[in-house]
Amino acid sequence: MSTLTENLTLAQKHAMSIRPRAGGFPVLAEVLRQAGVTLNRWFLHSCQSIYIMKDGSVVQQGTPLVTGTLEIPKFDREALITAIRTDQEGRSTFAEFLLSTWKAGIVSYEVDFVNRKVAYFGIEGDSYIEEYPTVELKIQG
Question: How far apart are CA 124 and CA 37, in angstroms?
Fold first, then answer.
């Protein structure tokens, strides 16, 4: 494992150990930002995530959400917002969030850790952008 992939993996593990169930995404995002991640691109159907970092880029390949030949759902802004709020309230797992986001017609999303924004994209150019709050991480000592 390279230093870059090791740093990302350690940051992810640390973030998951300290994030609260409800409203935990900003904590995860801040840990990753502090670890040097500037941008994260997710491709929903394949569950592929690309992390653009200050010193290079890393790809993580998860288990695809879909297989075979399928129609891509139409963009549904309200269903997307519901999926986001459900996740923010801690009422879904990450896998459930990804699936409900896909069902809302999202094919990819991008997290900008520098400007604290998440942009969700449908296949026909539809998009939805949301900012997330700044958090201060408590230093353990």
Answer: 28
Q: What gap in Å lies between CA 124 and CA 112, rounded to an integer?
A: 21
Exposure class string for 70-88: b at 16+ Cβ within 10 A, else e: eeebebbeebbeebbeebb
**What is the residue type of 99?**
L
Residue 40 resides in a domain: yes
The span from the CA of 3 to the CA of 70, in Å, is 38
Spatial CA neighbour of 41 closest among 51, 54, 33, 32 = 51
Q: What's the pLDDT tens digit per position in 14-57?
A: 988 888 888 888 999 999 999 999 999 999 999 999 999 999 99
Full residue range of the structural domain in which residue 58 is found = 3-131
